[in-house]
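Lab manual, section 2.4: Encoding a predicted structure.

Procedure: take the sequence of the chain (173 residues), apply the prediction step described in section 2.3, and record the output as structure tokens. A sample record is shown.
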Amino acid sequence: SVVSQDYANYEYIIIDGGSKDNTLSIVDKYRDKIAKVVSEPDKGISDAFNKGIKHAAGDVIGIINSDDVLLPGALNIVAEAYEEGVGVYLGNVFIWDSAEEVKIKAVPSKKYPLHTFGDHVVCHPGTFISKWAYEKYGGYKIDFKFMMDLDLLIRFYEAGVKFKYIPAELAMF
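Recorded output:
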């Protein structure tokens, strides 16, 4: 879904935790469209996210997991929404359960200072963060195995980072 985007100015970085399956043979099929591949053991998903951020050269970073899908035109939509001074861009995400054949649209929360779990929808695959925000306020906490994205967004919100909602579907989880 990344290589099929019609936005020309993207940098595709793959961080793999040292897979022993056929992951890297699949990656090899797209090697000419991938800027960098890092395949080595890591300390979990937060560590992998931080490695990708460190290697990224772009102004805005989106993180998508191997089983998520960027919807057609997503990168163009984010680029059109770009605004100087915005640290976090939040778009809608479809949550799809193929076994139950259920697809729902998740709209991201914009209430991050509220710390009750029920008040938050984190649409991680539809979240794009400015590189400067990571550099100034830090990355994902590697000791977090779950909800590391919620923690990051709460920290950014409380630090005064400007959030911008993009009223469009950007990804599927």
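Check your result against the sample. Residues 136 and 156 are 10 Å apart (CA to CA).
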